[in-house]
């Protein structure tokens, strides 16, 4: 998407200088900085410290990490080690393991003399695929928004979203935001309610994106959504996902489940934008089978922002001796979901099987 009239992806490769570049999301929304990733350690830190974040982008970054490592050491041992190091960065988003397995399965069949070249080709392929998948999710989501817009006779469609499932969380377009961008670009009025998404405030990233695109939005604290739904101010919810089970249970940023409960109680349709690499076909019951990342308690007990001197700073909001508890994701059972918007179409997990959309899975 565009930043200051220039098109960016969230990760890209510059062939001439042989560099992988990312937008450093630790600096957003305060400043826009592009950094290079080169060593395996650079890639490990970028994922673990959330310079890159969002399930699809984590997967693409891992693929570029393998590719850069193969340029330095293309042995089987180095491939296995890169897989282990990158796989240990974050436990919940399945796109990480999906991308790493895809790279390892393919590259272990390639002669070591060709590995560096083929690994970079594969990382670029995974990136391009992600862009196309999200574009298609946007088309299916656009149909849903268009129908609501027609019912509202052209009044703005009010959409609530949680966390950042925007282009910054993918390679481009975003998952939950792709329908919003496509609706806006077609002239369909939309208004987005952006959950702040404590503790990391990824809602500020969503707001930064929507601002850059000119889409009407307001930033709300995480507890506001229920009230907005009760008072008829939300027409639909669209969120992303970090891992979705074969049954359609959705693991996404902490707080998603409470939005789904409020949506059910108020008959607000609740959609999840779901690229197929985020489906974990090996698990069925999300609550029992998906590992939930627990992050540092300081993300809860401190609040981070830009101070009056334009410097990023943290302030403590809890008393001495009180510690935060910080599970990063929760599970929304499929029974609360109206539709999973995939690149192959929309699935209501209560009446359809997700696997019917992916016969060759
Ligand atoms: O902890 P994060 O910021 O990596 O979590 C991101 C989310 O939960 C997103 O909603 C999810 O990855 C979907 S991204 C298209």
Task: Explain what the structure shows.
The protein is globular and about 60 Å long. It has 361 residues and is of the alpha/beta class. Helix 1 packs antiparallel against helix 2 and helix 3 (76-87) runs antiparallel to helix 4 (94-107). It has helices at residues 40-48, 55-72, 76-87, 94-107, 112-151, 177-185, 203-213, 225-230, 256-265, 286-289, 298-301; strands at residues 2-3, 6-7, 11-14, 19-23, 34-37, 157-161, 190-195, 217-220, 236-239, 243-245, 250-253, 270-273, 279-280, 302-306, 312-316, 329-332, 339-342, 345-347. The strands form five sheets. It has a seven-stranded mixed β-sheet, sandwiched between helices. It binds 5-S-methyl-1-O-phosphono-5-thio-D-ribulose.
Structural class: alpha/beta
Helix content: 25-40%
The proportion of residues in beta strands is 15-25%
How would you state the average pLDDT, rounded? 97
Largest sheet: 7 strands, mixed
Measured distance between first and last alpha carbons: 30 Å
Q: Order of strands in the sheet with the most strands?
A: 8-7-6-9-12-17-18
Bound molecules: 5-S-methyl-1-O-phosphono-5-thio-D-ribulose
pLDDT < 50 runs, ≥5 residues: none
**How many strands in all?**
18
Order of helices and strands: EEEEEHHHHHEHEHEHEEEHEEHHEEEEE
Query: What is the number of helices?
Result: 11
Cα-based radius of gyration, to the nearest Å: 20 Å
Identify the overall geometry: globular
């Amino acid at each position: 998407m565009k930043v200051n009239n220039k098109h960016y992806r969230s990760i890209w490769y510059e062939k001439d200088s042989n560099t992988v570049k990312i937008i450093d999301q630790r600096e957003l929304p305060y400043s826009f900085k592009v950094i290079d990733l080169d060593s395996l350690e650079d890639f490990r830190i970028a994922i673990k410290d959330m310079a890159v974040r969002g399930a699809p982008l984590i997967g693409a970054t891992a693929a570029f990490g393998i590719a850069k490592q193969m340029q330095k050491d293309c042995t089987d041992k180095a491939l296995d080690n890169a897989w282990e190091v990158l796989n240990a960065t974050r436990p919940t988003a399945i796109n990480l393991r999906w991308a790493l397995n895809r790279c390892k399965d393919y590259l272990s069949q390639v002669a070591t003399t060709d590995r560096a070249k083929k690994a970079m080709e594969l990382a670029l392929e995974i990136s391009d695929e992600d862009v196309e998948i999200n574009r298609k999710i946007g088309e299916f989501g656009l149909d849903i928004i268009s129908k609501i817009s027609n019912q509202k006779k052209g009044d703005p469609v009010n959409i609530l979203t949680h966390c950042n499932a925007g282009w910054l969380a993918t390679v481009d377009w975003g998952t939950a935001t792709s329908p919003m961008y496509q609706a806006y670009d077609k002239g369909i009025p939309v208004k987005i309610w952006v959950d702040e998404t404590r503790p990391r405030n990824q809602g500020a990233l969503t707001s930064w994106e929507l601002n850059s695109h000119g889409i009407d939005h307001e930033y709300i604290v995480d507890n506001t959504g229920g009230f907005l739904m009760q008072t008829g101010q939300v027409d639909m919810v669209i969120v992303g996902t970090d891992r979705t089970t074969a049954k359609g249970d959705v693991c996404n940023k902490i707080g998603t489940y409470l939005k789904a409960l409020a949506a059910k109680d108020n008959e607000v349709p609740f959609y999840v934008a779901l690229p197929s690499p985020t489906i974990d076909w090996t698990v069925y019951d999300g609550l029992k089978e998906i590992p939930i990342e627990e992050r540092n308690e300081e993300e809860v007990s401190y609040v981070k922002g830009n101070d009056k001197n334009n410097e990023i700073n943290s302030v403590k909001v809890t008393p001495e001796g009180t510690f935060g508890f910080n599970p990063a994701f929760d599970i929304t059972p499929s029974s609360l979901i109206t539709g999973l918007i995939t690149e192959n179409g929309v699935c209501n997990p209560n009446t359809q099987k997700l696997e019917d959309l992916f016969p060759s899975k």
